[in-house]
């Protein structure tokens, strides 16, 4: 059985991360949960992106950028050491995120979709949220994003409300997940996919 773990970005994954980004471009795919990796298409270097996402875990730096603290992870498949997804966990919500974005943004690379990986990745992220003492996470998706909606519902997401994001002219469904409750409820299903002793 395949196993997975979350890993903080490093310089050692530079080429792989850029390949991950390029795969989205090649497939004309949306890119989510990368902490702004797509800026590497517009002149930012990987090193600059890396410096930013690592520092964003610190309150002082995040606030200086008008952002909340957050952690960006690569999701690694143990068997071939491949980045199969990326996820961004915001440690708390500001006024904007309360409506749009919530605590968690995520994506799975186009060639690895429809294998159940988004659900495993979200489970791994809930474990990280639990470590940070976050009781409930808000997760949202565009109301037409069936894959994302099913992922959220699969991990116990409870529908809260619908909001319209004028900037992108999209309707978003907002859900809340009770972190401890969901981990307890779904651990029999997902714990088998978790690499032990190798988180971060
Ligand atoms: C949305 C996304 C994360 C789903 O990743 P994934 O690894 O393919 O999802 P999973 O394989 O874990 O599937 C989760 C569920 O959604 C369903 N699903 C996934 N993609 C689907 C699609 N395109 N259409 C319909 N159902 C879909 C799966 O069948 C599964 O359903 P099940 O629980 O009933 O079996 C991925 O398509 C992606 O990265 N999209 C671009 C970025 C994005 O939209 N991120 C989320 C922003 S809110």
Architecture overview:
This protein is an alpha+beta fold and 200 residues long. It has a domain at 4-132: Gcn5-related N-acetyltransferase (GNAT) (Aminopeptidase), CATH 3.40.630. The protein is 35% helix and 25% strand. It has seven helices and seven strands, in the order βαααββαβαβαββα. The strands form two sheets. Strands 1-2-3-4 form a four-stranded antiparallel sheet, sandwiched between helices. The protein has a three-stranded antiparallel sheet with strand order 5-7-6. The longest helix has 15 residues, at 117-131. The radius of gyration is 16 Å and the shape is globular. The chain starts with a strand and ends in a 10-residue tail after the last helix. The model has no long low-confidence stretch (mean pLDDT 97). The chain binds coenzyme A. Coenzyme A is lined by residues 29-30, 32, 106-108, 113-119, 141, 145-148, 150-151, 154.
Task: Produce the secondary structure layout.
Blueprint: E1 4-7, H1 14-26, H2 46-55, H3 59-64, E2 70-77, E3 82-90, H4 95-99, E4 104-108, H5 117-131, E5 136-142, H6 146-154, E6 158-165, E7 170-178, H7 179-190
Antiparallel strand pairs: 1-2, 2-3, 3-4, 5-7, 6-7
Helix pairs in contact: 5-7
The structure holds coenzyme A.
Coenzyme A binds at residues 29-30, 32, 106-108, 113-119, 141, 145-148, 150-151, 154.
């Amino acid at each position: 059985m395949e196993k997975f773990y979350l890993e903080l970005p490093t310089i050692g994954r530079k080429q792989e991360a850029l390949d991950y980004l390029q795969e989205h471009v090649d497939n004309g795919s949306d890119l989510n949960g990368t902490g702004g990796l797509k800026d590497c298409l517009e002149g930012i270097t990987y090193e600059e992106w890396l410096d930013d996402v690592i520092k964003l875990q610190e309150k002082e730096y995040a606030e200086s950028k008008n952002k909340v603290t957050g952690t960006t992870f690569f999701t690694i498949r143990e068997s071939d050491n491949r980045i199969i997804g990326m996820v961004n966990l915001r440690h708390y919500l500001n006024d904007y995120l309360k409506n749009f974005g919530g605590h968690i943004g995520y994506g799975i690379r186009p060639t690895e979709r429809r294998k159940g990986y988004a659900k495993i990745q979200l489970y791994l992220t809930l474990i990280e949220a639990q470590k940070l003492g976050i009781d409930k996470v808000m997760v949202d998706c565009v109301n037409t994003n069936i894959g994302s909606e099913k992922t959220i519902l699969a991990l116990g997401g409870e529908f809260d409300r619908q909001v319209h994001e004028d900037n992108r002219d999209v309707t978003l469904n907002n859900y809340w997940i009770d972190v401890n409750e969901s981990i307890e409820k779904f651990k029999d299903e997902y714990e088998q996919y978790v690499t032990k002793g190798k988180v971060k």
